[in-house]
Specification:
3-stranded mixed sheet, disordered N terminus, alpha+beta, Endonuclease, Chain A, 7 strands
Amino acid sequence: MVRIRTKYTNRPVRTKCTCGCERYVNWNGSEKCWNRFIQGHTWRGRHLSEEHRRNIRENHPLLGAKYEDMPVCGHASKGKDHYLYGKHLKRPDGAVVRGKNHYLYGKGPNLGKHLSEETKCKQRIAAIKRIEKHVFVGGQVVPGFSLKACKFFKTFDKSHDTKGRHATNGGEYHIKSLGYFPDYINFDLKLIMEWDEEHHYIDGKLKKKDRIRQQQIQKHFPNFEFRRIREIA
């Protein structure tokens, strides 16, 4: 690119497209320079091999499509109205390239790996720290909670003349070393309560991750009583 600067502007002299079409390129504001190519001209002059052309034809999502299936200017281009809706890339053997048929399915770097509880704890704490820095929540972590559970905890406090901490009363207590937020904790009664909706159970049994969570919290507060309250649908 010629870097001669004119009398009336600080920009270098405008250049033509490198593909040889003799058309002038546009200014690239982010890189503060003229583009080398006009958009879409980077492939001009390239010669694809016959094998490459055949792969493009066989894997094109519109393979076998009729003229009326082609996109029309001005028509909606999302959802079921999108011209690619319901069409999927195919390999030369005819297999659909998605889900279990995808060539990368089951080949992830963590396939077959079982994270230790210590690693999971570190990941939870790191995730909470990232959320705390998020400006859209004012630098505060707000875990999900059940209004029905909070109503139960309020009734419990009133009947026992005490004041525990939960989502609508000071916010759920954060066990920073574990990355957990117990649903209810009362330091006067030395009591911890967890409210369980039905999705916490499988075939009537508490999920393994919830049992492990309870064990870790009990280990952190060995002198506290731990109760589970199961919500009745």
